[in-house]
């Protein structure tokens, strides 16, 4: 081919090219395969779709080294096996209309090719009617010939060395504990969604759980919460309206905790997180006035045509066609359950549950009268209403509760922590007579700010911000001299969620540095023996758990810089101050002011929020003269 001088050649003009299939799958893998737990999710969903009754999952080194999922489902023919790693190959979706009547977990035909493009994959499968099975091996998307093999009916998929050919993605993975924890959590979700399937989870050669198939949902829940806790759950009145069916279990607020680790919502057997649903549950409770979270195992069945699950590649989000029907059904079911419980009519004894697809027919609509539901209000005295400080409010996640109330108001039968007075007499190390005589306490504004007069003018003190600064500096002093610890009468046991074990391990030395005495007690429990004397917690396990969950969920990050303690102390002080009962400080804020003035930097919190705002007399006089 001859190029005319001055003209660009044909070939140089073309900058667009089609990605080859492996590259396209690796790109798609970015959405579908985020971490080992997402591989497990896809493989287990396929096993469920194949009608498996037993699903066995084995992992090594957080799943990165190896994940093996074995099922006794219907298996694949040799022809299907040859197709299953092709992009957009699915046995579940034939035409566009099917998308609006999805009965199965998968439909995009994307998972297997995506996984195969970023790992070494080995698939053995046999259908009942075949005399021998087939074996397919694939390395980073490059398939080898299919060969015949002996294997039981069903499918076994082994995924080794995840992200071996995409090192950048591999770098994003967290510790082995954290990745294993996410896998375990993912399996727990599947196991809760499908009680009639037996799940076996083996980690580094050890059986973590083996939950037998059951038709009794409460029994499956008990496998994860323990029998006692499961028996305290209230059964949600099966409820059905406008194509939405609601069932499940919940705890009254007396059993509530300060995080959402025990809240599970399934929509047509898919675990989901949805603001509309959280709000509807909250409404059913008549609000969670204390910022506490009930335990919740909520199962929704919505006609497939009324919900779009195809809005997120990993199907974590859904779109409802008629969101208000869904919220209403949930609110009514929750409210009716709590009303009944409050009337002492709820039957707490365990009872057999029908299997997932068979749901008791529509129950009558329960009246949701004004007095309905909030049994919580009866038991937990409502918190003194206190508006959060704007900065503190902005800092909290959207759904996070306003500054929590005094926790001591909650009756928590399981909790036997040391009960300390909510705000101790501040320990004034040395008297500061000159300072004390310079300031005069004038009053309190909006239950948040203390007003002082001094020869220089007026000063407004934010009681909460002041406490945050003081606690922070006390924590930082811990580095210089040992903290006096308060030994608990009974050690507080913090039960960790699988997802939090890795982070808890990272936080433990920091908590020790802060003056807590903490031991690991078994793989899943922290045992708090003592707390720093200046943090008079009255719900130690709640406090530690909340701290761990905020780090584990990524709301706050653990910095690995030269001094990880400083940012940790900042966060610890903020969390403590946010939930401390300020009543005693507001009654007599002078000791607080003196403590604050003794700080190295009294005028703002470590996060930069002001603690005190001065109004100098000169400024006041200038303003009046201007008029
Ligand atoms: P999708 O699940 O969206 O169809 P996948 O890539 O996850 O896409 O799987 C592709 C196809 O491989 C499935 O449609 C199914 O036919 C087959 N398949 C995958 N895993 C299994 C399994 N464990 N048992 C039987 N068939 C399977
Ligand atoms: Mg699938």
Bound molecules: adenosine-5'-diphosphate, magnesium ion
Helical percentage: 25-40%
User: Can you tell me the overall shape?
Assistant: elongated
Uncertain residue ranges: 349-416, 418-429
Most strands sheet: 9 strands, mixed
Q: What's the helix count?
A: 21
Mean pLDDT: 82
Beta-strand share of residues = 15-25%
What distance lies between the first and last C-alpha atoms, to the nearest angstrom?
A: 88 Å
Query: Care to count the β-strands?
Result: 24
Radius of gyration of CA atoms, rounded to a whole number: 29 Å
From the helix content, strand content and strand pairing, which structural class follows?
alpha+beta
Describe this structure in words.
- The protein is an alpha+beta fold.
- The chain contains 21 helices and 24 strands.
- Strands 1, 2, 3, 4, 5, 6, 7, 8 and 9 form a 9-stranded mixed β-sheet that branches. Strands 10, 11, 12, 13, 14 and 15 form a 6-stranded mixed β-sheet that branches.
- Strand 11 and strand 12 (244-250) form a beta hairpin.
- Helix 2 crosses helix 5 (111-117) and helix 3 packs parallel to helix 7 (176-193).
- It is elongated, with a radius of gyration of 29 Å.
- It starts with 9 loop residues before the first helix and ends with a helix.
- Residues 349-416 and 418-429 have low confidence and may be disordered.
- It binds adenosine-5'-diphosphate and magnesium ion.
- Residues 42, 45-46, 106, 111 line the site of magnesium ion.
């Amino acid at each position: 081919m001859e190029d005319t001088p001055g003209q660009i050649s044909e070939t140089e003009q073309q900058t667009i090219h089609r990605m080859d299939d492996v590259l396209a799958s690796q790109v798609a893998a970015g959405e579908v395969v985020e971490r080992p737990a997402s591989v497990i999710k896809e493989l287990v969903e396929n096993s469920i779709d194949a009608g498996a009754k037993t699903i066995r999952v084995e992992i090594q080194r957080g799943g990165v080294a190896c994940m093996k999922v074995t099922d006794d489902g219907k298996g694949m023919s040799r022809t299907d096996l040859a197709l299953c790693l092709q992009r957009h190959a699915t046995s579940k979706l034939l035409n566009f209309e099917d998308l609006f009547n999805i009965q199965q977990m998968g439909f995009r035909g994307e998972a297997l090719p995506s996984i195969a493009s970023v790992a070494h994959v080995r698939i053995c499968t046999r259908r009942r009617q075949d005399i021998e099975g087939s074996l397919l091996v694939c390395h980073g998307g490059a398939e080898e010939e299919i060969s015949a093999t002996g294997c039981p009916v069903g499918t076994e998929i082994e995924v080794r060395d995840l992200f071996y050919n995409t090192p950048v993605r591999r770098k994003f993975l967290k510790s082995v504990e954290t990745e294993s924890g996410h896998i375990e959590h993912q399996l727990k979700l599947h196991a809760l969604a499908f009680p009639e399937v037996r799940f076996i989870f083996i980690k580094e050669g050890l059986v973590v759980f083996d939950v037998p198939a059951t038709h009794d949902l409460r029994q499956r829940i008990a496998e994860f919460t323990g029998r006692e806790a499961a028996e305290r759950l209230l059964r949600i009145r099966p409820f059905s309206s406008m194509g939405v069916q609601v069932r499940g279990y919940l705890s009254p607020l007396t059993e509530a905790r300060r995080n959402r680790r025990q809240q599970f919502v399934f929509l047509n057997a898919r675990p989901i997180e949805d603001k509309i649903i959280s709000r509807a549950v909250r409404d059913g409770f008549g609000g969670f006035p204390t910022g506490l979270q009930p335990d919740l195992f909520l199962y929704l069945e919505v006609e497939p045509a009324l919900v779009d699950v195809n809005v997120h590649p990993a199907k974590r989000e859904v779109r409802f066609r008629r969101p208000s029907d869904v919220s209403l059904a949930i609110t009514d079911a929750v409210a009716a359950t709590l009303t009944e419980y409050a009337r002492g009519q709820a039957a707490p004894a365990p009872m057999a549950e029908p299997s997932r697809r068979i749901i008791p027919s529509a129950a009558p609509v329960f009246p949701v009268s004004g007095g309905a539901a909030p049994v919580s209000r009866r038991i937990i005295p409502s918190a003194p209403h206190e508006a959060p400080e704007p900065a503190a409010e902005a800092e909290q996640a959207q759904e996070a509760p306003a500054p929590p109330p005094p926790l001591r108001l909650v009756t928590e039968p399981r909790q036997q922590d040391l009960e300390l007075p909510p705000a101790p007499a501040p320990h004034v190390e040395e008297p500061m007579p000159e300072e004390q005589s310079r300031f005069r306490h004038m009053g309190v504004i909006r239950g948040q700010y203390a007003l002082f007069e001094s020869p220089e003018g007026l000063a407004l003190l934010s009681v909460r911000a002041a406490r945050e600064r003081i606690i922070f500096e006390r924590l930082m002093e811990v580095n210089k001299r040992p903290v006096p610890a308060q030994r608990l009468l009974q050690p507080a046991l913090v039960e960790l969620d699988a997802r939090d074990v890795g982070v808890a391990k990272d936080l433990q030395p920091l908590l020790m540095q802060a003056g807590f005495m903490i031991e690991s007690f078994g793989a899943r429990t922290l045992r708090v023996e003592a707390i720093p004397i200046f943090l008079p917690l009255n719900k130690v396990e709640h406090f530690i758990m909340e701290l761990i969950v905020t780090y584990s969920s990524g709301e706050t990050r653990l910095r690995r810089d030269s001094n990880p303690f400083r940012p940790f102390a900042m966060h610890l002080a903020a969390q403590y101050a946010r939930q401390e009962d300020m009543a005693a400080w507001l009654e007599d804020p002078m000791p607080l002011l003196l403590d604050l003035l003794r700080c190295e930097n009294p005028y703002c919190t470590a996060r930069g929020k002001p603690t005190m705002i001065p109004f100098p007399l000169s400024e006041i006089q200038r303003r009046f003269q201007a008029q």
